[in-house]
Design a protein that fits this description.
This protein is of the alpha/beta class and 232 residues long. Helix content is 28%, strand content 28%. Strands 1, 4, 5, 6, 7, 8, 11, 12, 13, 14 and 15 form an 11-stranded mixed β-sheet that branches. Strands 2-3 form a two-stranded antiparallel ribbon. A two-stranded antiparallel sheet has the order 9-10. Bound molecules: NADP nicotinamide-adenine-dinucleotide phosphate (NAP).
């Protein structure tokens, strides 16, 4: 069953009630997150641009070390720092955006996860653009595979069904909303990621758990690559 989520979920900007001069006043309070990204390519940079726009800070990493990311950091602008993979993975919310062949290498040497949310944006393709072949994940969704390699992380599958150009373009399309899907076994983590994607401008649909939802939205599944719009 497809369930639109997040309509009543947390927005990064919320109101706090404060006591001042004996009166209750409503004050705007910005809630921002420190988001880590493992990967610094097209999906990672598109994610960073959306997150920066709504006020989050980003820690971006690749396999070759922070010094190789100077230009990327400069292009993305204020709010972004280049870090090691371990530093990125220590953030409260982490995005995994590396090619499938690099997933195991990226996750294997990280310190233990401390219940952070890990958004798995990967698709099961061997090789690079132009020479892709579908990878056999032994009946698992990629996110189940990722969850096995990241015990202690709350894995949420998201973003991966969208072509990066559509993700980059954002949620507003001629009066309709572009749809983003989320799947996870942890309901709270799924709600948080759904709420975050809504702040990026997307309509969010819950596809269920990591296995069933994951298989539907990842490469090889029926939703992969589709650009789906919701009229509000
Ligand atoms: N492109 C799309 O339309 C699209 C859409 C949705 C999902 N996806 C999926 O998202 C993932 C990323 O795709 P992409 O298009 O962003 O790829 P990309 O542009 O090729 O970028 C991949 C990034 O991963 C980094 N990387 C490789 N190994 C790493 C490691 N061990 N640790 C940290 N970083 C590492 C690479 O940097 P170094 O080589 O310098 O380490 C590079 O910055 C893939 O799984 C893809 O299937 C892609």
């Amino acid at each position: 069953m497809f369930v639109p989520i997040g309509a009543t979920s947390v927005h990064p900007r919320c109101f706090a009630s404060l006591e001042a001069n004996g009166r209750h006043v409503r004050k705007r309070k910005e809630i921002t997150m420190d988001i880590g990204i493992i990967g610094a390519g097209s999906v990672a940079q598109a994610f960073a641009r959306h997150a920066l726009k709504v006020g989050h800070t980003m820690k971006i990493s690749n396999s070759r070390g922070p010094s190789t990311l100077r230009e990327t950091v400069q292009t993305l602008g204020p709010g972004v720092t280049a870090v090691t993979q371990a530093e990125a993975a220590a953030s409260e919310l982490v995005v995994l955006a590396v090619p499938w062949d690099d997933v195991a290498g990226a996750l294997t040497h990280l310190p233990p996860w401390q219940h952070q949310i890990l958004i798995d944006a990967t698709n099961p393709f061997h090789g690079r653009a132009g020479t892709f072949t579908l990878a056999d994940v032994h009946g698992l969704s990629t996110s189940q595979f990722v969850a096995q390699l990241a015990p202690g992380a709350k894995v949420v599958k998201a973003i991966n069904h969208m072509l990066v150009a559509n993700f980059e373009a954002g949620g507003d399309v001629n009066g309709a909303k572009r749809v983003a899907f989320v799947s996870a076994d942890d309901a709270d983590a799924k709600n948080k990621v759904g709420a975050l994607l809504r702040t990026f401008g997307f309509a969010v649909i819950d596809l269920g758990n990591l296995r069933d939802g994951g298989l539907i939205q990842q490469a090889g599944g029926p939703l992969a690559g589709l650009d789906i719009l919701q009229r509000m």
